[in-house]
Amino acid sequence: MKLNQLYYFKIVCKYNNITKAAEYLHVSQPAITHAIRELEKELGICLLIRTNKNVFPTQEGELFLQKSSEILSNLEALTDEMRDLGEFHRTVIRVGVPAAIGTVILPQLEITASRKLGIELEVVEMTSEEAEFALYNDELDLIVLLIEDKFYPQLEYKVLKESSLHLLTNKNNPLAPKKSISIPELQNERIILFYPGKIIEDIFKEYHITPKYVLHSNQIQTIRRYICAGLASTLQFPEAFMRDTDIQRIPVLPSYRLDIAIGKKRGKRLPTAASRLYHYLAEHPEEILL
Predict the structure, then answer these.
(1) What would the pLDDT profile of 81-103 be if each residue is shown by its tens digit?
(2) CA atoms within 13 A of residue 124's CA, in its CB half-sphere
(3) What was the pLDDT predicted at 85?
(4) Pairing label, strands 92-97, 142-147
(5) What is the model's pTM?
(6) What is the CA radius of gyration of the chain?
(7) Nearest Cα to 194, choosing from 240, 150, 153?
(8) Coil, strand or helix: which one is 100?
C-alpha cells in the first residue's frame, strides 16, 4: 500500500469523479484508476461503486476513507512538526474565507499576516460549509467564518467580533426607518438568499414563512447592486456592507448571533506559522476588522 494511493482515493471521494480528481491532482485519469484498482486488489475489497459519470465509496470504502484520512492527517501533522524543529518552516498558510466575510477582512488580513508576522497566505473564497469541510479534511490550516449559536464538535475557534443578523435593504425602502424588524414582517419582502443560505432558510421555516426569493447568489457585488438599486433586501451580518451609505442595516429581533471567528480543526497541531496567526488575530482582531 502506497501513500499516493491513499491520497488519490481521498480526492476521488471528495469529488466523486475521477476526471475532477485528476484535474485537482495534475495527474492522468488512467494513473488514478490504476492506483485505486491496485489498492482494491491488494485489500481484496471493492472500494468504489462506478457509474457512467461518477464514483461513490462502498460501505467498505467509507470505512477505508475514514481510516486512511486519519493516516494522511497524522502524516501531514508529523511533517509540519518535524519541519518546525528543523530549518524548513512552512510559512504559507492556507485560509478559507466565505465571500461575505472576505469583503470585510480582505486584503487587510493578508497585509497583517505579511507585515506583522512574515507569513504568506493562500486565501480561498468558499462558503462556510465548504470551508468547514475542507478544514476537517486537512485541506486548510485555518478558516474565518460566521459562528451561529450552536456547538461545533470538530472546530476550535476564537470570536473576533460579535455580530448578529440584520436586514440589509435600500435606504429608500419603506422598512428602512424601522429601528428593528421581526421575521414575520418580511413575509412580503423581496429577498436575496446569500447562497447556500441554510441559516436564513431555517429561520424562515421556523416562522412558517415562504419568502419571495428573487436571487440566490454568493457574489457579494451582485447582491450589493440589487440592494442599491432597490430591487430586493437580504439577511446577513451588517459588517458585510458597512461601507455602503445607500444600504440601511436593521437589527432582526429576536437576535440571531452571527459572530465572526477564526477557526482551526479541533485537536490538530498547527504549523508554527498558522498557530502564530491564529493567536495574533484572536488578540488583535481590530487589525483586520476595521
Answers:
(1) 666 655 555 568 899 998 888 88
(2) 18
(3) 59
(4) parallel
(5) 0.70
(6) 22
(7) 240
(8) helix
Count of CB atoms within 10 A of residue 86's CB?
Answer: 8
Tell me what pLDDT residue 86 has. 56
CA 237 from centre of chain: 16
Helical H runs in the chain?
Answer: 3-15, 18-25, 29-43, 59-85, 99-105, 108-117, 128-136, 198-206, 220-228, 272-283
Q: Exposure string (b/e) for 273-282, b if CB count within 10 Å is 16 or more?
A: bbbbbbebbe
Domains of the chain and any CATH numbers: 3-85 (1.10.10.10), 92-161+259-287 (3.40.190.10), 166-251 (3.40.190.10)
Q: Which amino acid is at 122?
A: E
Smallest CA-to-CA distance from 233 within 165, 281, 290 is with 165
Cis check for the bond before 107: say yes or no (omega within 30 of 0). yes
What are the pLDDT digits (tens) for 180-229?
Answer: 999 999 999 999 998 767 788 889 999 999 989 999 988 888 999 999 99
Residue 95 burial (CB < 10 Å; 0-12/13-18/19+)?
Answer: buried
List of the chain residues with pLDDT < 50: none
> How many CA within 13 A on the CB side of residue 281?
31
Q: Each residue of 26-49: b (16+ CB within 10 Å) or e?
A: eeeeeebbebbeebbeeeeeebbe
**How is residue 90 written as a grid cell?**
512552512
Distance (Å, rounded) from C-alpha 29 to C-alpha 169? 48
CA dist 231 and 165 (Å) reads 20
Provide the pLDDT for residue 129: 80
Grid cell 426569493 — which residue? 213
